[in-house]
Amino acid sequence: MLEVTGLKKHFPLERSFLDRLRGKKEAGSVHAVDNVSFWVRRGEILGLVGESGSGKTTTARLITLLERPDSGSVQFEGKDIYGLSPDDLKNFRRHVQLVFQNPYDSLDPKFTIFESLEEPLLTHSVGRTKDERREMVHQTMKKVGVPMEALNLYPSKLSGGQRQRIALARAFALEPKLLIADEPVSMLDSSIRASILNMLLDLRAQGATSVILITHDIATARHVCDRICVMYMGEVVEFAMADELVTNPLHPYTHALLSATPRLDPDARVTVELTGEIGSAADPPAACRLHPRCPHAYERCRVEEPVLREILPGHYVACHRSEEVFFPKLTGT
Ligand SMILES: Nc1ncnc2c1ncn2[C@@H]1O[C@H](COP(=O)(O)OP(=O)(O)OP(=O)(O)O)[C@@H](O)[C@H]1O
Ligand SMILES: [Mg+2]
Questions:
Q1: pLDDT means per 10 residues in the chain (333 residues)?
Q2: Which of 325, 277, 274, 323 is nearest to 295 (CA)?
Q3: What is the distance in A from the centroid of ligand 2 to the CA of 100?
Q4: What is the structure's pLDDT at 329?
Q5: Which ligand is closest in space to the CA of residue 231?
Q6: Which of 221, 231, 174, 217 lies closest to 201, judged by CA?
Q7: Considering every ligand atom, which ligand is closest to the CA of 58?
Q8: With helix as H, strand as E and coil as C, how does the chain read?
Q9: For a substitution probing ligand 1, which of 57, 99, 101, 220 has the most ligand atoms within 8 Å of its CB?
Q10: The pTM is what?
């Protein structure tokens, strides 16, 4: 359904006062997304996981045409999204929906909930009459479990959890082929989080919608996703089926993420603790970006950037030492 290949987006850094004094012409750039490749199958939930600044939102913005890449391609149903004809573009905008992290930003405060839900239907000419659209809005409200009385209210009168349900309902009302949810629950109470994530699973089960779920929490991704793509400093470091990735992680960074997740069984894996500061994605050297923090780094990691390799069937890892470090421990030798 969606194929992302070699996607790259660098943001130029502002020159500082010192840079200008020293006559530096350029201040370099942040490698927000660097050579990112992954794909999403029809009907699956793909988790995009990584800590703050790893390039998750930039990737989502590139896939939804809010940002243009420096290079690389994104194919949606076999067509390059950056070269779509006006008709295909309209179709793309209807079928690829993005929901943001903050439920307070995602709804227009001047619109009632009914108006907010009807607006995308009008924009995309879904439902011929007002009655037909009203019926569709009612069906959507039932699906997301927000009482009908809320329809005439403004977003300010709803709770954060209700707003995020409405924001998701708004995206789902168009029966998109792909929904991208950027940290949809990170600003909500833990009690509401589970119900929103379950709602996402229910909505997905009702149709053929694929979902990209962006989260920094690998435990959430494991619970909800079919496959997981782990990002670190603008790069994909590991990409595999969710269960496979969690029970058999082959990248030190994924190990560290799992070590920091107390809900998972500590005996099931080798514990890797990262040391040192998180580096900067500004002008990184040709090296593994994790090497200053990685307990397994050796000389090659400092001079050669590892590429994503298929180490086991369907299990991709970008690390020079995966087999050496993690394979013997897996087989217990
Ligand atoms: N418009 C921009 N101009 C300059 N730098 C940017 C811009 N957008 C993102 N960046 C930088 O790109 C890097 C990746 O940012 P991004 O927002 O994609 O990360 P993220 O994984 O979504 O993080 P978070 O979990 O905090 O949302 C960061 O270093 C960020 O500062
Ligand atoms: Mg983000």
A1: 96 79 77 94 94 93 96 96 94 91 80 92 88 90 84 90 86 87 81 79 78 91 94 96 94 89 48 67 81 90 94 96 79 50
A2: 274
A3: 9
A4: 56
A5: 1
A6: 221
A7: 1
A8: CEEEEEEEEEEECCCCHHHHHCCCCCCCEEEEEEEEEEEECCCCEEEEECCCCCCHHHHHHHHCCCCCCCEEEEEECCEEHHHCCHHHHHHHHHHEEEECCCCCCCCCCCCCHHHHHHHHHHHCCCCCCHHHHHHHHHHHHHHHCCCHHHHHCCHHHCCHHHHHHHHHHHHHCCCCCEEEEECCCCCCCHHHHHHHHHHHHHHHHHCCCEEEEEECCHHHHHHHCCEEEEEECCEEEEEEEHHHHHHCCCCHHHHHHHHCCCCCCHHHCCCCCCCCCCCCCECCCCCCCCCCCCCCCCHHHHHCCCCCEEEECCEEECCCCHHHHHHHHHHCC
A9: 57
A10: 0.88
Q: Please identify which residue in the block is written with the tokens 């050496």.
A: 324
